[in-house]
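Minutes, project check-in
Item: structure for the 401-residue chain
Input as provided by the requester:
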Amino acid sequence: MNRPVLILCAAEGLTLIGVFAFPALLPTFQAEWGLSNAQAGWIAGVYFLGYALAVPTLSSLTDRVDARSVFLGGAVVCALAAGGFAWLAEGWASAMIFRFLGGVGLAGVYMPGLKALVDRERGAAQVRAMSYYTACFSLGTMLSFLLIGEVARHFGWRAAFVCAGLTALSGAGLAAALAPVPPETMEAPGGLLDFRPVLRNRAAMGYILGYVCHMWELFTFRAWMVAFLAFAQSRGAGGVGWQPTTVATVCSAVAMAASLAGADLALRFDRRHLCTAAMLASGGMALSLGGCLVLPYGVTVIAAVLYTALVQLDSAALTTGAMLSADPARRGATVALHSLLGFSSAFFGPLAQGALLDGFGGSGQVRSWVIAFALMGLVGLLGPLALAWGRPARPVAETGR
C-alpha cells in the first residue's frame, strides 16, 4: 500500500469515528432523554439524510476540483458537528440538528476520498486501492463503537463526542499532507448535477440499485445492533456476557475483514455472482435474526457476528463495481448518485425499524424485533434482482472484473 492510499485510508478511518457515536450509545440516550424508538430512529437516520442531500453536489464537484479539497472541508464539518453535539445537544431536536450536520460532513469525506484515491492511482493497483478504502469504512465503524463506548463509559457521552471531533480534525490533518492532484481533464457536458448519463449506464445502475438494498440492510442493523444486543443480554441469566458495544466492535472488525475478502474474491470470480450470493445469504439470515432472542445470549452474539460478515461481504465489491462501470469523465457524478441513493436508503432503514418496533409492541418485545428484522432482510433480498437487471446483454471485458 503506497503513501497516498495509506494516508487516505487512515484519514477516512479517523474522520468516521463519529458516524456511529449515537447508535453506540443509543440505550443511554433513550434512558436520559426519554426517546421513543421512532425518535431514536430519526436521530440515527437523519445523519444519512444529511449525507444524501449533500453528496450529489460534493461528489459531483470532484469532477471539477481536486477531491482532496472537498475531503478537507468535509472532515472539518464532521469535527464541528461532533463538538456541537458534545456541548449543545440536550434532546431530540438539538441532536437532530448536529447529527444532520455530521452527515453533511461525511458527504464531503467518504466518496470524495475515494475519488481522491482514484485520481492518484492507475492500473491494477487502483482496483485494489479502492477495495482497501471502502473496507476502511468498517475500520471507522469499529473505532466508533470501541472508542465512543469506552470513553463514554469512563467520562460520559459528551466527552465521547469531543473525542470524535478531535479525531476528525486529525483526519483532516493527514489529508492536508497529500500533494494536490487535479481531476482528469475530459469533456463532460452538462451541469454539475446532471445525472442523466449515469442513469443511462445500465451496468453502473445495476450496482447502484444493488447498493441501495445493501445499505438499507447494513445501516439498519448497525443503527439498532447495540439496542438489539442490550435487549438480548437483558433476557439472559444475570445479563452476563460481552457488553453490546464490545460485540459491536468485534462485528466491525469482522466487517472490515469480510469486505476485504469480498473485494479480493471479486477480482478472482464474477463480481455480480459474488454480490448476488452474499445478498441472498445475508438477506436470508436477516429473516430469522430476530428469532435468536429466544436463544441464549451467547448464541445471539455469534449470530450477530456471522450476519455482519455476510452483509459486509459485498460492500466494497458493489462500490468498486459501480466505479469500474462508470464513464471516466463521470466518476464523480457516478459516485454521487451511488451515494445519494445508497445513503437515502441508510436514512429510511433505521427510521422504518424504529417505527416497526413501536408499532408492534416496543423494543422490549421479541415479536417486534422478529418483524423489524424480517423487513430488513426482505429489502436486502431485492439486491440480486437489481444486479441481474444491470448485467450487460453481451459479456463485456471489465477491468478488475
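Outcome recorded: Confidence is low (pLDDT under 50) at residues 395-401.
No further action items on this chain.
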